Amino acid sequence: MSVRDLAEPPIDQSSADHPPVRPVVGFYGRSSKGYYDPPHAHDRAQFSYRLEGVAAVRAGDAAIVLPPGRGVWIPAGMRHEVSCRGPAAYNVLYVTVDAAPQPDDLRVIDISPFLHALMKELLTFDARYDAAGREGEIVRLMLGEITRAPPSTEAGPRLPDDVRLQRVCAALRKDPADPRDIDAWADEAGMSRRTFTRNFRLETGMSFVAWRQQLRMTQAAAMLSARQSATQVARTLGFSSLSAFATLFQKSFGISPGRYAEQLDR
Question: Which residues form the domain of 82?
Answer without folding.
Answer: 3-148
